[in-house]
Specification:
364 residues; alpha/beta; 6-stranded mixed β-sheet; 3-stranded antiparallel β-sheet; 38% helix; 20% strand
């Protein structure tokens, strides 16, 4: 991916269109991409859900908006730092203008009724007819556009109490990937696993999840009442092949049609209920995976790059739910914004060393 980006950024084209250029890049590569975009003289239109990348590079933000009158776009003429406040103020203005129109509409209709009653006992119909004309023209112009439809994903991750020690590793070595390391992870810890691609981070998560194909030496065990739930970065679920979302929810959770559509609606997936899982977009697959974690009630969440394909609203909904989640969370991430919600940082170094750091380390 970096090779392709190097070719495009240093090529002859004056305009580049980049669809999620940061996905699957580790943080050193993301920082390289930020610097290349900043110094480039090209016009670059890019889609990204990486909030650090957006904050560092975008000098305009185009938002695709849904509306009851059809979809449209809004351009914020500044950077991402001021985007949320400007969007909130704009949407509030939509609401205020619409409320003023509705108040005026009500006032004009009441005036027409009042003048109609007065005209019944008076030969002068001019005022009544003038007000009727004014109301008709007001209604012909119609109301101002409503505010855009905001995405409203509702994540409600739940857990029960486990033993104090959740994961215990002693002299654990992931074959051909890491040196021996020891770590204990405790109930309600928030552990971010950081490091370059290929250092063994995802293998570690898969081993905790119960994947026996991950070869290791040393001691590894889970604590009492620990039930791991795994979010796969690649969305690889062979067991979902050829199945719709409704079929998966019935087979895994015994959810009948009404209940299934209700939970899918909270994740804005109701319209995809009868689609095959493999036909969904990356973001839709990611939201569905989070939904399955919610329904399972796992006490240990193992998240492998959960925000990679999530749009901003969904990522923020996930972050809010994780903050309220009572269980333990271990996440592999290259999302620097997402990592701010974690309190422990396990670093997988490029030379096989694995160590804990009090702060995020993105360069090793």
């Amino acid at each position: 991916k970096r090779l392709v980006l190097e070719s495009l950024l240093n090529g002859p084209d004056e305009v580049l269109i980049l669809d999620e250029p940061d996905n699957y890049l580790d943080v050193p590569a993301k920082r390289w991409l930020e610097e290349e975009i900043r110094k480039s003289k090209k016009t670059i239109l890019f889609i990204s859900h990486d909030r650090e990348l957006l904050a560092a590079t975008a000098n305009k933000v185009v938002t695709l908006e849904q509306s009851i009158n059809g979809n449209s776009t809004w351009i914020h003429g500044e950077g991402f730092d001021t985007y949320h406040a400007a969007r909130k103020a704009r949407n509030e203005q939509f609401v205020q203008v619409l409320e003023r129109w509705e108040d005026e509409h009500k006032r004009l209709k009441e005036l027409v009724l009042t003048l109609q009653w007065q005209a019944a006992s008076s030969p002068d119909m001019a005022s009544y007819r003038a007000m009727q004309t004014r109301l008709r023209k007001f209604e012909e112009i119609g109301p101002p556009p409503p505010p855009p439809i905001e995405q409203d994903v509702k994540v409600n991750l739940r857990s029960t109490r486990t033993g104090e020690r959740v994961v215990i590793c002693e002299n654990l070595t992931l074959e051909n990937l890491t040196d021996p390391f020891s770590i204990e992870i405790y109930y309600q810890d928030r552990v971010a696993i950081l490091g370059k691609n290929g250092t063994g981070k995802s293998h570690f998560l898969r081993r905790i999840s119960g994947d026996d194909s991950v070869r290791y030496t040393g001691t590894f065990k889970l604590g009492a009442r620990v039930k791991p739930g795994f979010f796969a970065q690649t969305h690889a679920h062979p067991e979902f092949e050829g199945k719709t979302l409704l079929e998966i929810l019935w087979q895994q959770n015994s959810l009948q049609l009404g209940a299934a559509k209700s939970v899918l609606g909270r994740y804005e997936l109701a319209q995809q209920a009868e689609q095959l899982f493999t036909s969904l977009s990356g973001g839709q697959q990611a939201r569905f995976q989070v939904l399955l974690l919610e329904l399972a009630g796992d006490t240990l969440l193992l998240l492998d790059e959960p925000t990679d394909n999530l749009d901003l609203a969904s990522a923020e909904a996930l972050e809010r739910s994780l903050a309220a989640y009572e269980g333990t969370v271990i996440a592999v991430t290259h999302d620097r914004w997402f990592a701010k919600g974690f309190t422990r940082f396990l670093i997988f170094g490029a030379e096989g060393q694995v160590y804990e750091s009090p702060e995020p380390v993105w360069s090793h």
